[in-house]
Amino acid sequence: MSVMRVHVVSDVHGRVDTLAGAADGADALICLGDLLLFIDYADHSQGIFPELFGAERATEYVALRGARRFEEARAMSALLWGSLGGEPREHIERAAREQYARIFAAMPTPAYLTYGNVDVPGLWAEHLRDGHHVLDGQTAEIGGLTFGFVGGGLRTPYRTPYEIDEEEFARKVEALGAVDVLCSHIPPAVPDLLYDVVARRFERGSEAVLEAIRATQPRYALFGHVHQPLAARTRIGRTECVNVGHFRRRGRPFALDL
């Protein structure tokens, strides 16, 4: 019996240089979202925000958010966006389109993609190429197995672009039914999978994804979102739960042999 290899990436955050080769040696690529880079928390000169306002302002903004001083961060952001004139959304979407154009031009085919919490779903369609399949609350057959995809994140004080209510997220998970591989941007709500050891905080995970794993026992549950997790993988019953890694930092995919 032949083995099919799938490469999986998440949290690309503008890492175009190695994205084009992310499917080398694989039959297909899966991308679990967060294509855009708003601010690189390791290098404050990289991303949409510093490109518009400079690294010094980006450092101030990151410090406020890191201290959970969200109202001050939003006030600072509003003042900076207002200095550009026009609507902030116009500037953000213009910069996002430029990033998406580069990212999707480098995205291999075939690729099965879902959205991350920092993505802007409404902008994807204009950049997709033949062989790019976007799924959110939907399934696809890959190598004879059923893969289910759930994009986006749950609401947080960070107010990233594609955060939704728990009820809406749960409906997307339920729509998948039983699958062989459950793919989501955010992890199931298991504390060790949610704690970022560098940021020193818990990210939000999904109770609905956790319950689906317990109820249907897929072979794998794949996700990203937490860049430096306390635990990169765990097992829930027969399901191997795997954080596929922070692609912007690692520059290489997670390989899954089926």
Overview of the structural elements:
This is Metallophosphoesterase. Residues 4-229 form the Calcineurin-like phosphoesterase domain. One of its GO terms (molecular function) is hydrolase activity. It holds the Pfam family Metallophos. The structure is a single chain. The mean pLDDT is 96. A 6-stranded mixed beta sheet has the order 5-6-9-12-14-13, with helices on one face. The chain has a single domain (5-36, 106-257), classed as Metallo-dependent phosphatases (Purple Acid Phosphatase, chain A, domain 2), CATH 3.60.21.10. Helix 5 (166-176) runs parallel beside helix 7. The protein is α/β, with parallel strands linked by helices and 258 residues long. It has helices at residues 48-53, 55-66, 70-83, 88-106, 166-176, 191-194, 207-216, 247-250; strands at residues 5-9, 28-31, 111-113, 132-134, 138-142, 145-150, 153-154, 163-164, 181-184, 195-196, 201-202, 220-223, 233-236, 239-243, 254-257. The chain has 8 helices and 15 strands. It is 31% helix and 21% strand.
| Number of E strands | 15
Major sheet summary line: 6 strands, mixed
CATH architecture: 4-Layer Sandwich
Could you tell me the CATH topology label: Purple Acid Phosphatase, chain A, domain 2
Beta-strand content estimate: 15-25%
Strand order of the largest sheet: 5-6-9-12-14-13
- Regarding quaternary structure, what we see is single chain
Could you state the CATH homologous superfamily? Metallo-dependent phosphatases
User: Which parts are unreliable, with pLDDT below 50 for 5 consecutive residues or more?
Assistant: none
The radius of gyration over CA amounts to 18 Å
Shape: globular
How many separate structural domains? 1
- What string, H for helix and E for strand, traces the elements in order? EEHHHHEEEEEEHEHEEHEEEHE
> What is the SS-derived class?
alpha/beta
Count, helices = 8
CATH class placement: Alpha Beta
Domain Calcineurin-like phosphoesterase: 4-229
InterPro entries: Calcineurin-like_PHP, Metallo-depent_PP-like, UPF0046_metallophosphoest
GO molecular function: hydrolase activity
Protein name: Metallophosphoesterase
